[in-house]
Amino acid sequence: MTKRTVLFLCPHNAAKSVIAAAYFERLASQNNLDFCATSAGTEPDAATAPAVVDLLRSEGLDVSAHLPRRVTCEELIGAFRVVALGCDVSDLAPPDKAIERWNDIPPANQNLIAARNAVLEHVEQLISELKQTN
Predict the structure, then answer these.
(1) Which end of the chain, N or C, is less surrounded by CB atoms within 10 Å?
(2) Burial of 26 per CB tally in 10 Å (0-12, 13-18, 19+)
């Protein structure tokens, strides 16, 4: 059986969506959930933010090979769940596609720890919800 995909989006795919996908992957695995995560952006940067790579590495999560990329319409259609962290994909998403918005995440370039903590809290809530419906 194919794992269901949760797609995390942020403007640059260099910080918030990368953090969300990394924590989601870890927690889904720890909870034996049949889900995987991916991330993309609407205006991707050339590279993942070095501070994000360092922070996640210090927590045992390796995102050093991640290359920011632009989200596609096909990904939006195929994703089980789409989470937008401060970006708008309404021009790409089909009208009936539900998009969860986590717009309360502080900018990672201003306060990385606060951004990480807010993202992690949301991811933990999402995992808890998926455990109940899985």
Answers:
(1) N
(2) middle
pLDDT tens-digit map of 50-79: 999 999 999 999 999 999 999 999 999 999
| Cβ count near 9 (within 10 Å) | 31
Confidence of residue 2 (pLDDT cuts 50, 70, 90): confident
DSSP letter string, the chain:
-PPEEEEEEESSSSSHHHHHHHHHHHHHHHTT-SEEEEEEESS--SS--HHHHHHHHHTT---TT----B--HHHHHH-SEEEESS---TTTS-TT--EEE-TTPPPTTT-HHHHHHHHHHHHHHHHHHHHHH-
- Per the CB < 8 A criterion, the answer to whether 5 and 78 are in contact is yes
Query: pLDDT tens-digit profile of 9-40?
Result: 999 999 999 999 999 999 999 999 999 999 99
